[in-house]
Amino acid sequence: MSEEATTLMARDESPGRAYPMVLERLLFVAAVVGFVVLQPSAMDAIDSPAWLSFIVGWCGLPIGLMLFTEFLGRVLQRVW
Fold first, then answer.
1. Is the bond into 40 cis (omega within 30 degrees of 0)?
2. How many angstroms separate the Cα of 17 from the Cα of each of 20, 26, 50, 77?
3. In the prediction, which pLDDT does 3 show?
4. Which residues contact 65 (CB under 8 A, 6 or more apart)?
5. Residue 31 CB: number of other CB atoms within 10 A?
């Protein structure tokens, strides 16, 4: 067997630029910190009913932050 590395299609490929994984991790940490900071104010913004305040604070905000950070990560991938 040959020691030569090949792809499945036997193409010669050159490595691309390194992806800045540190920036994406920083975005994730910023989303977690943003949740901790914004969660009480998101729950206070909705007075009644209480179940809606709970859903916004514990479900809507994390999902919104996750979507926002995922969007920023994909923009970062496209630009980088």
1. no
2. 9, 19, 49, 11
3. 62
4. 31, 34, 35
5. 19
* Number of residues written out for the chain: 80
Confidence of residue 15 (pLDDT cuts 50, 70, 90): confident
Instruction: Say which amino acid occupies 30.
Output: A
Angle ∠(19,23,28) on CA atoms, nearest 5: 120
pLDDT digits (tens, 9 = 90+) for 20-79: 889 999 999 999 999 999 999 999 998 889 999 999 999 999 999 999 999 999 998 888
Structural element, H or E, at residue 48? none
Question: In terms of pTM, does the model score above 0.90?
Answer: no
